[in-house]
Amino acid sequence: MRSKVRPATIVGLLVAVTMGLAVLDAAGFPFRARLYPMVIGSLVLVLAILFVVRELRRGAEKEEQSGATTGAMDIEIDRSIPVSVIARKATKAFAWFLGLYLAIWLLGFKLAVVVFLAAFVAIEARAKWSVILGLTAVMVFAMFMLERFLGVFWLEGLLNLWLQEPLPWLF
After folding, report:
1. pTM, to two decimals
2. What integer pLDDT is reported at residue 161 of this predicted model?
């Protein structure tokens, strides 16, 4: 009997291939630049390979036990939530991600992440201003420490390129 490959296995393979290519690409970077992608990429690569192996074994075991292939989902689908609500929430999440990427491209990483965090917590969590300012202060402090003591390079946005000089208010 021919075994069906589950969609989760295909996604795991795609993640493993992507991380493998990322680790190979990062191997040519200077030491400080390759440290983060090599560590994280290697970890994700190992986890993705373990996931694929587990999925392949699990699929074969389930097929032997039940005599049939498993479905595409591991969890039951909750049909009580209207599709329009799910689509609206997915669109909203995609809009937040797209907004973050556009802000990074325009403003640079440091400013975009701080503005995004404050806006997201204010709009989505409806947090008090004290919480928003506290989280923003912690983020600014963490980014300052990473830049100052670890030499982390933060991507500059088009705004800095257009103005031909770094903005002093970007800490």
Report:
1. 0.55
2. 74
